[in-house]
Amino acid sequence: MPDVATHLPLRERKKLRTRQALIDTALDLFAERGFDRTTLDDLCDGVEISKRTFFRNFASKEAVAMAPLQDLWSAFLEQLERSEPRNTSLLEFLQEALVAAVRATAIDGWAHRATRSHQLAQHTPSMAAHNLQFCDQTTRSALLVLHRELDLPDDLRPRLALDILVAAFHRALDTWTTRTTFDTVDLLTDLHAAFAAIPGAVTMTAKISR
Q1: Residues of CATH 1.10.10 domain(s) within the chain?
Q2: Which residues in the chain are classed under CATH 1.10.357.10?
Q3: C-alpha span between 119 and 65 (Å, rounded)
Q4: Are 202 and 120 in contact (CB under 8 A)?
Q5: N or C: which end of the chain has fewer CB within 10 A?
Q6: In whole angstroms, how far apart are CA 91 and each of 40, 145, 159, 165?
Q7: pLDDT value at position 4?
Q8: Rounded distance, CA 80 to CA 77, Å?
Q9: At what angle do helices 157-176 and 90-105 cross, to 10 degrees?
Q10: Nearest-CA neighbor of 139 among 156, 121, 114, 115?
Q11: Measured between alpha carbons, how far is residue 44 from residues 4, 52, 67, 130 in Å?
């Protein structure tokens, strides 16, 4: 668990350990048996918990499988709440918040879990659908935070900025998870490369090849 967990009350530390054990066990079983062939009973037996305890932590198998990446976006929302506005573009403000969220989340084996989660989602339709729904919910939540914390126009631009940020992250994630080793520094490198490509993508000329 992250070092900060050592400062939590015993009950909270136990809850965090149970949650992490569920994530690790789920990713192991999904890789070994396949997502669809792994039952909820299998997960609970692997951690020696009841279904009631499982549902106190996660709403579904998809939720536990996507937890590493969803934790990152939860940290992003928290970062938006804490970030001090400054004289920069909204997209740069969002990029800085996401980089800070990666640095805060990517500890204690997170990179390996996130990679396994992303790779599993590429071959599991229900996980992909769950991820799309989560992305939309997170984007809507982020938009509410931005309008609450910043003086933004009530038009399409803030939502489009968030959509661009999410798209850039997914492209960086695709690149990162094809590497032979998975390191936070490499993820940040791929993320900055995706950010740097945004202006060129927006202004790229569509040329007819013939």
Answers
A1: 1-58
A2: 66-210
A3: 11
A4: no
A5: C
A6: 40, 15, 10, 7
A7: 45
A8: 5
A9: 40
A10: 156
A11: 26, 10, 16, 21
Instruction: Give the three-class secondary structure for 152.
Output: coil
Residues 6+ away with beta carbon under 8 Å from 19 = 57, 67
Whole-angstrom distance, CA of residue 95 vs CA of residue 92: 5
Is residue 208 classed as helix, strand or coil in its secondary structure? coil
Residue 6's pLDDT is what?
55
pLDDT values of the chain reduced to their tens digit, one per residue, 210 residues: 344 455 667 777 888 889 999 999 999 999 999 999 999 999 999 999 999 999 999 999 999 999 999 999 999 999 999 988 778 999 999 999 999 999 999 888 899 999 999 999 999 999 989 999 999 999 999 999 999 999 899 999 999 999 999 999 999 999 999 988 888 999 999 999 999 999 999 999 988 777
Tell whether domain 1-58 is in CATH 2.60.120.
Answer: no
Q: Please give the structure tokens belonging to residue 26.
A: 């789920």
Residues for the chain: how many in total?
Answer: 210
